[in-house]
Amino acid sequence: MNIQALMQQAQTMQKQVEANVEKAKKELASKEVQAEAGNGLVKVTMTGRHVVKRISIDPSLLEDEPDMIEDLIAAAINDAVRQADELSDATLAQATSGMGLPPGMQGLFG
User: Fold this and answer.
1) pLDDT tens digit string along 45-89?
2) Residue 66 lies in a domain
3) Does 13 map to a domain?
4) Is 72 within the bounds of a domain?
5) Is residue 91 situated within a structural domain?
């Protein structure tokens, strides 16, 4: 086996993985997840790249204690982050699939 040919093949694969990962990152920036807390009293919309796009607070909640509102906002944001992480993991795994990378190596490109 020619080592130079093997190195060229590895470089080609690396470029392909990098291109796929960049495409996946752009895709994640346009995808959104929505999370809620307090049975929908607080809703958060976030991109797959963890950018909060919207926070919606039911007007009836504004009459309650500020601490409760803050807790519900934090809970909704944390749920949105979890969903965005899952979306990111799935999208990046798809971008690097078929490349023959060992399990766990896909995460290096996130």
Assistant:
1) 999 999 999 999 999 888 878 888 999 999 999 999 999 999 999
2) yes
3) yes
4) yes
5) yes
Query: What gap in Å lies between CA 94 and CA 88, rounded to an integer?
Result: 10
Angle in degrees, 0-180, between the axes of helices 66-96 and 3-30, rounded to the nearest 10: 150
Residue 25 is part of a domain; what is its CATH number?
3.30.1310.10
Q: How far is C-alpha 95 from the geometric centre of its chain's CA atoms? A: 13
Estimate to the nearest angstrom the gap between the alpha carbon of 102 and the chain centroid: 21
d(CA 66, CA 3): 66
10 Å Cβ neighbour count for 22?
12
* Residue 71 amino acid letter: D
Rounded Cα distance, 14 and 37, in Å:
42
Domain that holds residue 58: 3-98
Residue keyed to tokens 């080592």: 3
Q: Which two tokens stand for residue 98?
A: 């078929």
